[in-house]
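User: If only I could read backbone structure tokens as easily as an amino acid sequence. Underneath my words sits a plain record pairing an amino acid chain with its backbone structure tokens. This is the protein in question:
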Amino acid sequence: LRAAYYGWNQDFGVADIARRGQVLEWEKYLQQTMRYPSSLGYTAEALNLVRLSKTKEARRAAGRAIALDPNDPEAHVAMAWALIVSGEPEEALNFLATAIRLNPKYPSHYVLARGVALFQHGDLKQAAEVFEEGFRRNPSAIAILPAYASVLAHLDRRKEARETLLTLRPGSDQTTLENLPFAFPVKTWEGGSKRF
């Protein structure tokens, strides 16, 4: 699933994964996986449902993943994303804390989820600190940079936001930076939506 989000499909030899308007190949594999339910299978299903904005179903799938293996940190991250897209960042942060406790050497997608939850909760300063520390810890974690730049811009730290985006796309002009295709809506503490 992350292969589709981050464009790793070519690296894994799954060329059809990013085709628009067609049933994605990995959805077929997910259906096959669910013949033998596991925490990993329900986690993948939950993340797919999050992508489709099917929040109730995503929460249910993540709950099944956690029930099958309460010590699977990825299941807790999947529940956090389901809660984030449901507009419940405080609860999402609780699941992320559990995931981090279970996996103290956590990967950068935990940082992304935590920063987005903090952004959604309205704690922009803490979100910026989480992204900054996450990127310092793993400078190859470029997937967190668009969200980090957005938080910096909301904090009126626009020069730093621009520099952050230039780290992602060196040499880009302003128009290119303004049109990066990484924007996504999240429900906010005000009940509306903001764009990263």
User: Anything to note?
Assistant: The chain is about 60% helix and 5% strand. The first strand starts at residue 185 and ends at 187.
